[in-house]
Amino acid sequence: MIHFNPETQTFNLILQRSYYAMQVDAAGRLIHLGWGARPRHANPDDRISGQTSHRHYETKASFETQRLPLEIVPFGDVVTFQETLKVNFPSLPRDTAVGESLHLPIRDLRLRYARHDIADDAQPGLSPTHGLPVKNNSPRQTLRIHLQDPVQPFAVILCYRLTPEHDIIERWCELENNGLEPVQIEVCHFATLHLPAGTNELTAVTGSWAQEFMARRQRLHQGSFVLESRTLQTGHHANPIFMLNRPEQAGEESGSVYFGQLAYSGSWRLVFEQLPQGDVRVHGGYNPFDFELKLAPGERHITPALVQGFSDSGWGGASRQMHAFARERVLPHSPAGPRFRPVLYNSWEATYFDLNYENQVALARRAAALGVELFCVDDGWFGERRSDRAGLGDWVVSEALFPQGLEQLVQEVHRLGMKFGLWVEPEMVNPDSDLYRQHPDWVLHFPGRERTEARHQLILDYGRTEVVEHIFTVLDNLVERYAISFFKWDMNRNVTEPGSVAGKAIWYKHVAGVYSVMDRLRQKHPGLDIQSCSGGGGRVDLGMLGRADQVWVSDNTDAFDRLHIQEGFSLAYPARCMEAWVTHEHNHITRRAIPLSTRFAVAMRGVLGIGSSLHELAEAELAEYATYLRFYKQIRPIIQEGDLYRLQRLEEFGGSAIEYMLPDGREAVYSLVVEKYQVDSFHPVIPLKGLMPAAMYTVSDHHGLELYRLSGYELMTLGIPKETQWYPGFCQTWHIKAAI
User: Fold this and answer.
1) What is the pTM of this model?
2) Partner of 24 for a Cys bridge, out of 9, 334, 526, 594, CB 3.0 to 4.6 A?
3) Whole-number Å distance between alpha carbons of 107 and 89
């Protein structure tokens, strides 16, 4: 609910368990009043009046004059601390320039309240345009507060879109140049968040290729701490998600936690700033590194969103709110698509570049016999692609590998009852390709400089409309001709020499171009699914999840490593979009040998996929695969749509225990995997969550064998009876169901 008191000029945003309040002061500035938990038993009419200031920001010290918690912090009102927005004006308007000694450009912006309105159809920048519905399409209110510079013809609309049931607010800015001259924007964050003093324990994820989403928890100190990406995708080194709480005052299921994430897949930055007096601010948006945003006279720019929320149920509660928000309000739910994410087989580790019709159809037949629902041919099916040195960019089926065309394989896959998918990397090109020989100017480069290759490839210039149009055309033709149901959309390098016809705007233009191709494909082919991949988990964020059904979390499929990767991923993103593979016993990256039961236990925590070479498996092992696939399909609705409880994190006792539970409490999945264990050491009781105390539950294994029959009360107090001996690799995946 959005409420405005015209007498006190106070805004109150009322959500299910939290509030957000701000006020227009006597000078017309929009001041943050508070954000956090609503008192228990408060009713919707209970609001902050704003009649009395509860905090004093003016001091006698001349060095402390810029502490006002402005909802948007412009460079002008504030220059000492981090700004939300910094704008360069080429001149003063004529009426105000008389007698002034001008220092140009004028780097000063002041924003004052003009008016506000409430909209039911407001959208942040780069929102999906494919037209596919989300799970929950009910309208949401957006408060739009219009701010105007009193001197310059420049306006900003601050937008607050409410999702009350998840205590989430989406924040973005709409920038308007109403003057006669262009303006240049140097810094543009989507929003600034103000947190209570001392809320300085930060949980975030960092890492690198093959070890993405490593969860870190640290104490912020006075000054600024930055998480950022300086690439054309979201990046491996950090992900734009965070949680903040008072030190030692939050846990997995208790305490007040503030959280946020960016809905943007390009060069981004999050700045966590603790002021000298202990106030904490978070600024999130475009990375100002090599950044430039020019607004022509009359032009308007709408930023993507910073999604913020509050949980009074600890880090786990914050995760469940973000998961539900993504499942219900972000991920596309095509009427032509599957209700649940299908079990996938990918041929990469089975054949690498040595693929042809014969070995692909043999793999497809074995995969179908196991119960696979989607068969994806990976890299190497096109042009002269026999290694990673050639052919990239030539998206034409290789006649040498498929002399009868790809139709023959597609028809066989469909006959076997599976959907057909292809790997593509549409943002890249090998210099040894027909596309590059025809259009050497179509890549990012600076004239006169070497074009640096990585993985023997260059990046196409998505600042060129002709490049974006070409990519859409070739992908559209593939879908049309071969009845493709799934693209694994990859991107396997970071940017160097970001020279583009778009200039510095390439950082934004590239993201917009990728989004536009995906949106147009999905609008034209509503049955097409997309998996986002960028050398593993390099492009995962809410902006991408608005047009991708699932994401490839990491190229590392080692089950023990994936425990850490998936735990960090689960802080913000739901299992419904987390693609997880079972691959060979000896992992091709780590070379570690891991039992099949452990590999399945970890992969079944998300969207199950198979990447093993099925030719190398004995019949007994294939039968074991089939048993696990049948079991996964039985528990899939709970995993992909249920609420996640991290019952025991890896930092506790060397094991990971999680529970997925349907909202009505009738069914759950319990998964335990032990990574490290010292012989004869303590391992704790692990009570379950969210069950019905009085109900009786059956506990069954992956063979369907009933192991226990226990009450919900007992399961939520003493947990599931423990094995007498734990060991590294010990695992359990059990289906818990209310007995009828």
Assistant:
1) 0.96
2) 9
3) 6
